[in-house]
Design brief:
Organism: Rhinopithecimicrobium faecis
Number of domains: 2
Oligomer: single chain
Radius of gyration: 21 Å
Largest sheet: 6 strands, mixed
InterPro entries: DUF3298, PdaC, PdaC/RsiV-like_sf
CATH superfamily of the largest domain: Fervidobacterium nodosum Rt17-B1 like
Structural class: alpha+beta
CATH architecture of the largest domain: 2-Layer Sandwich
Helix content: 10-25%
Protein name: DUF3298 and DUF4163 domain-containing protein
Keywords: Signal
Pfam family, one: DUF3298
Mean pLDDT: 84
Low-confidence stretches: 1-33
């Protein structure tokens, strides 16, 4: 990240939207048989304060890449995956971020500081005849020693147009068994002995293993995704925990089995 001098007023905030037709197979995640057609679009906006009067580099900006489906109802579902803090439009998302920076820039008492950025990429992780899974992948910097990044997963049933919850995949009475299987897999993944405490090196409440709220059904696995700071320090990064479906086939609901079969 470059350093820059006290910002100089630019002409105005610059916002533009571009779109391009994208073959589904290029953004279809783990599914090889995409069914819902979509195109990838991009949105970009930048601050009115330039980082450098001559080059215009390092200006604070926000960038969003996202799919647009042919079906308008599906697009409403996509919006719920894009806007996670109460926003309703791209302009609202951009305004919230850029105005915060502009206020900071105007009130800054130092002569040099870093530009901010917010990059958001909504990717289609899985796309089958029955459901779609999306990843909202965010990277941002708003000052401090380092930036931040996180991934948010959401899956939607294409028939009911509702978000798929874990209880839709796993029979409710089988959830405790799923937790036990996942913990055993987690300990194996992290090289932790069966009887070792999770309190010393992880952020689980009271040292009790819990499943991540972030999950996605894949062709051969049920993925649970822990973002930085969730169970480990930022330096240790994120954690992907994949449970083989063959290990939990007896725990699946009839609907969960249908979702799995829709990959074929």
């Amino acid at each position: 990240m470059k350093r820059f001098f006290l910002p100089i007023l630019f002409f105005s905030a610059c916002t533009f939207i571009t779109c391009q037709s994208t073959a589904n197979s290029a953004h279809g995640g783990v599914s090889s048989a995409d069914t819902a057609h979509y195109e990838m679009h991009s949105f970009h906006a930048k601050s009115k304060f330039l980082a450098n009067a001559e080059s215009g580099q390092d200006t604070t900006f926000i960038s969003v890449n996202y799919p647009i489906f042919k079906d308008s109802i599906t697009n409403k579902l996509v919006k719920s995956a894009i806007f996670t803090d109460g926003e309703q439009t791209m302009d609202q998302l951009a305004t919230s971020f850029i105005e915060a920076y502009d206020e900071y820039a105007k009130e800054a008492t130092v002569t040099t500081f870093a530009a901010w950025y917010h990059q958001r990429y909504i990717k289609v992780h899985s796309n089958t005849p029955l459901f779609i899974s999306l990843i909202n992948s965010v990277e941002e910097y708003t000052g401090g020693a380092h930036g931040n990044h996180y991934n948010l997963f959401k899956s939607f049933d294409l028939s009911s147009k509702k978000e798929i919850m874990l209880e839709d995949l796993i029979i409710k009475n089988n959830l405790p068994q799923l937790v036990n299987i996942a913990e055993a897999r987690f300990r194996e993944h992290e090289n932790i002995a069966k009887d070792s405490s999770l309190s010393d090196s992880y952020f689980f409440d009271d040292g009790i293993f819990t499943l991540a709220d972030n999950f996605a059904l894949e062709r051969d696995h049920l993925l649970f995704y822990y973002n930085p700071y969730e169970i480990k320090s930022y330096a240790e990064g994120d954690t992907e925990l994949r449970i083989p479906l063959k290990d939990i086939k007896d725990l699946l609901s009839p609907k969960g089995i249908q979702y799995i079969n829709s990959f074929n």
